[in-house]
Amino acid sequence: MRSLIVFGAAVCLAASAQAQMPTLTMESASIGGATDMSSKHLAEVAAKRKIATIQAQAGKILSKSILQVAQGKTDLAANPFILQFLMSKGLGPYSGLGREKGKALAGNLRLLYPYHLAHYYLIAFQATGIDSWDKLKGKTIFNGPPRGGALTTARAIIRLTTGLNEGKGYVGKQIAWGQADSLFLDGAVNAAVRPGTNPASYMPIYIAAGKINIVSIPIAKTQTAAFRKFVKAPGNVAMTFPVKDLAHYGRGVNVISEDDMFRTVSNTGGDVVNKSMPKALAKALTKAFIETLPDLYRKAPFARGQLFGIVDDKQMGMCNAGVKFHAGAAEAWEEAGHKIADCAKP
User: Is residue 15 domain-resident?
Assistant: First the structure.
């Protein structure tokens, strides 16, 4: 009888502990990308540490996801910083909200941790002869899906680097991400200006079909007033890294640069929650993420390149977009020895 009583008490305690551990919903973008990896990692470590059960779903439209977080309908979501900025102004996909409502909703979003979503690359088969940005003139270029931030960014980079506008200087080709690789491989476009991690998941497929050129943005172009203004815009940062960081692609890829550095633009973002999330929960989630960064780096070869674990505003561009940390997250980062910019504090 005593053993039954002890067993029953243990079951009750376990059930009570489970009941106290919240179940959260989380949304990310394309499967296998930085946002997907981040959400799955957080779900894993939150469960192991008995902080929360996170139901992570990938393949979502992030403009809708962060709106749902702001409205309190979803607990966490990947947040491209440009989208939060647009929401705060009632622009783009949030024009229907109006400026006042958009500002209020954007003010409900709070960051746990930032990272780079993707870097932009000019990619072409060597057989096309495209080995510089100037050679895009008159060519057909895949520059993103029919709408969204990737297309806007790619068009801007091409314009700032070459002076060419779509429809006049070159033919732009838009297609859904799921069909983009086929478009490139079939020769329906001469080149692509598109985002990707490092290494990019699509590159092995391209290399198998032929030798590839990847072209850095020329130094002189990055120093123009227009380009400098662009990389300081919400959701954008300038990105420069050693050419050798692309050496993993092997002989199938020729990286073209004026020196030993590769220059491009990165989109920034991070995982956000509603400001109403309890401070203790936001802190516990963030602390678990920080302390398990070595595990995250081992999960994908591109993890370090997305700058997980960096909260420097110059590298992440949070303040330009009006992004602020959750109070619990800011506390977790500071206790881990990181400095949070005053403009990003709640």
Answer: no
